[in-house]
Amino acid sequence: MSIEAFDVEKVRKDFPILQQTVNGAPLVYLDNAATTQKPNAVIDAISHYYRHDNSNVHRGAHTLADRATAAFEGARQKVASFINAQTTDQVIWTRGTTEAINLVAASWGRQQLKQGDRILVSAMEHHSNIVPWQMVAQACGATVEAIPVDSSGTIDLKAYTELLDEHVRLVAVGHVSNALGSVNPVIEITRLAHEAGALVLVDGAQAVGHWPVDVQSLGCDFYVFSAHKLFGPTGVGVLYGKRDLLEAMPPYQGGGEMIESVSFKGTTYNKLPYKFEAGTPDIAGVIGLGAAVDYLNAMDRAGAARHEQALLEYAQKKAQGVSGLRVIGTASHKASVLSFVLDGVHPADLGTLMDQQGIAVRTGNHCAQPIMDQYGIPGTVRASFSFYNTFEEVDRLFAALEKAKQFLM
Ligand code: 7TS
Questions:
Q1: I need a surface site. Which of 146, 205, 209, 271 has the fewest CB within 10 A?
Q2: Best residue for ligand 1 mutational test, from 149, 229, 328, 365 (most atoms within 8 Å of Cβ)
């Protein structure tokens, strides 16, 4: 059976923002690791909700409240099956990846961690998968230690195995590094952690937008991601957790929705998932995420993943031909990120010159300062791809780079 080519031109038509010029040139959007663009289906779902169904959820005895609640809880079902969660109420809405990690750190961490306990995070983590653990560790007398990463950006599994002992309570690791693009062996990392009696949180922020994720086959205890890196809106994210763990965890924030009954004698808490969802949620955002999941389910995801991989390989090959360019992150298994530095040029200057040519790339430390320090650099220029990018856009990236080099060197 032949594999049909992925129709990128057709897909691009779904994303209105891509049809514009920036600084006189057609926009080349290569900042997908920061946030992805939104298809019409998502924009329309949010607009439809505010035009027709806007109401608070769960509480109202009227038609709009019923509609809003049905759409909101329907999105939870969509997300649960999208990641193959065992049950729908293991999907907790948060504001994003960052809040989901803070929730686990504050709830599970404060309940469970004690003096002498250890938390392991990889040396290439985003700050949001380091700092919440440092905060809770400091409060509980635990420590946070880095799992070594080699010069290619690959986790050193031998060193990781040696770090594991009975004091390690949790291993927190990114599925894909936002700074380097490394795809981490999270199944193996989870298996080893479980053998040592530790739990595993996988930060899926940079994975969910690139291929189907199945939390049951990964085996991890917690999986977190943001809607806005999955073609959905900002302000919404997901915490998936194993049911027994979520059941045993205390609430994160107090307020409406998360209670069963309140009195001055004592308050009892709601069941999952509401126990962790105090206050009025981002209803439109959740509905937008549901629409993003529908959009992805209707597309050729295997074709999209192959297309992205081909773009990355094409870009990496072109990068080899640029004198003075050093790719940061050369792991054998990578996804959608080309990070690089250019001899004698500050990444921020390069970013500005690229923008003047309509190319959107990100520069800086990508909220991953420890791994930048390990490479001895302040930051990189990062081009990050999605399925709506084209080979022609990669050509334009490198043409713009050559032009910028002439200007700067
Ligand atoms: N984890 C990873 C791996 C990320 O890439 C990001 C955001 C986060 C966590 C935090 O997600 P948030 O939605 O809660 O902010 N990464 C990036 C980036 O690479 N450029 O801008 C944001």
A1: 271
A2: 229
Q: What is the pTM of this model?
A: 0.98
> Looking at the structure, do residues 49 and 151 belong to the same domain, yes or no?
yes
251/314 same-domain check: no
Question: What pLDDT does 409 receive?
Answer: 76
Question: For ligand 1, what atom is nearest to the CA of residue 98?
Answer: 14
Q: Is 379 in the pocket of ligand 1 (CB under 6 A)?
A: no
State the chain's mean pLDDT as an integer. 97
Please give the residue that has the higher pLDDT: either 1 or 50.
Answer: 50
Domain that holds residue 156: 44-297
Instruction: Look up 367 and say whether it is catalytic.
Output: yes
- Domain assignment present for 173: yes
Domain endpoint, select from 297, 332, 360: 297
From the CB of 33, is ligand 1 less than 6 Å away? yes
Say whether both 132 and 19 belong to one domain. Answer: no
Same-domain check for residues 195 and 220: yes
Distance 329 CA to ligand 1 centre (A): 17
Question: Where do the DSSP E strands lie in 95-229?
Answer: 118-122, 143-147, 168-174, 199-203, 222-226
Angle between helices 283-298 and 40-48 (to 10 degrees): 150
- 3-class SS letters over 24-82: CEECEECECCCCCCCCHHHHHHHHHHHHHHCCCCCCCCCHHHHHHHHHHHHHHHHHHHH
Alpha-carbon gap, residue 272 to 363, rounded angstroms: 40
**Boundary of a domain, candidates 297, 326, 361:** 297
Give residue 127 CA to ligand 1 midpoint distance, Å. Answer: 9
**Residue 360 counted as domain residue:** yes
User: What local confidence, expressed as pLDDT, does residue 3 receive?
Assistant: 64
Which is catalytic among the residues 196, 367, 377, 390? 367
Query: From the CA of 205, how far away is ligand 1's center (Å)?
Result: 6
Q: What is the pLDDT of residues 325-379, one digit of tens each?
A: 999 999 999 999 999 999 999 999 999 999 999 999 999 999 999 999 999 999 9
